[in-house]
Write a structure and sequence with these properties.
It is built from 14 helices and nine strands. By secondary structure, the chain is of the alpha/beta class.
Length: about 350
């Protein structure tokens, strides 16, 4: 199926959509149970999808694992280098996800089949990398992610364009990396953030006050990571007290009081790595946000409160949940949304080079 059939005619001269647009409703209109935010959110990480994706794109089953040295620490990335690349993508998972997260694998397969090399970057203490760094993960570790992104783009993205895409907390990191790109010389052509946690404090409040399903899910996954970190550094850490706590807020406070999170309290920590107005205003390349009004984890008011910027395009749809956006035909709208916008950017650049 052509891009034209999926998205209509893509006009390179078309002006960017308004900052907060509902035009995507014409393209993404799920029906039945797919209009339910919890169904969409659960399908985002539905493991049988990964098995099907690996079957359809076997190359993803055996990526090359590399370790990247940065000024702050070591990060691991899973690489699928295309034999005839026409571009390169760095992908970032969400909190307690990893390079094997279903939504990340789905996007990887979509891009790889269309000629892109793909680097799935694991954040610190994600993707079985607890042994790589003594100090635990926290949200302020943006420099190591930015430096790793630069290394990946320079090595695997010699055939531009280079794109960066992040989901949930990975979307937060992607936007902040894009803001640092001009200063650090990261060769990015476009950045995409899906259901980004632009204000982590609001996200934590939503988890605490919303359906218990999500709070229990993240608490269970965080406890598993805490145990793995403790085991990887036996004798250094004793997190048994944290494992007995019932809420994410209490667990966050434990790590702050232990001196392992750089803040005085949970709110100052979470607000400390929000996507600020300065962050948005520092981004110099085309940047796209996709979010749903019914996201049970990210308040839509956090997205609409972002400042206007000539480089920022925001798409808000009524349904989609958190990182879901599964269409009636069970395909991911996320993948098509990213690729269509990327094609538009490429067409724009080609017109500038060859008017």
């Amino acid at each position: 199926m052509t891009l034209e059939r999926l998205f209509g005619n893509i006009n390179p001269k078309q002006k960017p959509n308004k900052r907060h647009t509902m035009q995507a409703e014409l393209l993404f209109r799920p029906s039945g149970v797919l209009r339910h935010p919890h169904a969409q959110s659960m399908l985002a990480s539905f493991k049988p999808r990964r098995w099907l994706i690996f079957k359809q794109c076997p190359a993803l089953k055996s990526p090359q694992r590399i370790i990247l040295e940065t000024s702050e620490g070591k990060l691991a990335a899973d690489i699928n280098e295309h034999p005839n690349p026409k571009g390169h993508a760095v992908l970032l998972h969400g909190w307690e996800g990893c390079s094997k997260s279903v939504y990340l694998v789905a996007l990887s397969a979509y891009l790889y089949k269309r000629g892109y090399s793909v680097s799935r970057l694991n954040l610190r203490d994600h993707g079985d990398t607890y042994h790589l760094n003594k100090d635990p993960f926290h949200g302020f570790l943006i420099n190591e992610v930015a430096e790793a992104t630069k290394q990946l783009c320079e090595h695997y993205g010699k055939t531009q364009p280079n794109l960066l895409a992040g989901f949930s907390m990975g979307g937060n990191f992607a936007l902040r990396v894009a803001a640092l790109a001009p200063t650090l010389g990261i060769p990015l052509d476009a950045t995409f953030a899906v259901s980004p946690a632009v204000r982590p404090f609001s996200t934590m409040q939503a988890l605490a006050k919303g359906p218990k399903l999500y709070h229990h899910y993240f608490r269970k996954k965080w406890r598993k990571s805490i145990r793995a970190k403790q085991a990887a550094w036996a004798g250094l850490y004793d997190f048994e007290a944290a494992l007995k706590l019932e809420t994410l807020d209490e667990m966050t406070d434990f790590f702050i009081q232990s001196g392992l999170l750089p803040a005085n309290n949970a709110k100052s920590y979470l607000e400390g790595y929000r996507v600020s107005d300065e962050t948005i205003n520092s981004i110099k390349t085309p940047t796209f946000i996709l979010s749903a009004s019914d996201d049970p984890v990210i308040p839509i008011s956090d997205i609409t409160a972002l400042p206007k910027s000539p480089t920022l395009n925001t798409t808000i749809v009524k349904h989609g949940g958190h990182c879901g956006f599964i269409q009636n035909d069970r395909r991911s709208y996320i993948n098509q949304w990213i690729f269509s916008n990327l094609e538009r950017i490429i067409n724009n650049k080609n017109e500038e080079i060859d008017p």
